[in-house]
Amino acid sequence: MIFGLLAWSSNLLLYGTSDKVPLTKYEFATLTTTKSIAMDKYDYMILDIIQTYKQEQQAHIRLAVLERNFWKRIEADTDLSVGQARIGERITNLYLDGMLQNKNGYTLTKKGREQLALAPWKQNELV
User: What domains appear along the chain, each with residue ranges and CATH number?
Assistant: First the structure.
């Protein structure tokens, strides 16, 4: 997300005075960029853990539970490497990319749910 500062000036009449004083107004404009992030199996796994927890528990998942489930899945899967996991960095990047939100626990945003639908194992289920 890129923030810009727009400025313009106008002559406004200040209350309590009869003089016109030139003032400058400022507004912040937000320019969004559409950046597709490169997601790998670990990122999709985090999204899947969050979504599965939400469906089963009807609640937002806490960070400690998310981390525990993440490491359990990595230990159970021989294709995944502990060295590449970096869960904290991944959660931060998913949060900054708008895939998840943290409101008294983590949950997926609409964008996160849409991205999870594109997970490789979900694509195989559709075929």
Answer: 2-31 (no CATH), 41-126 (1.10.10.10)
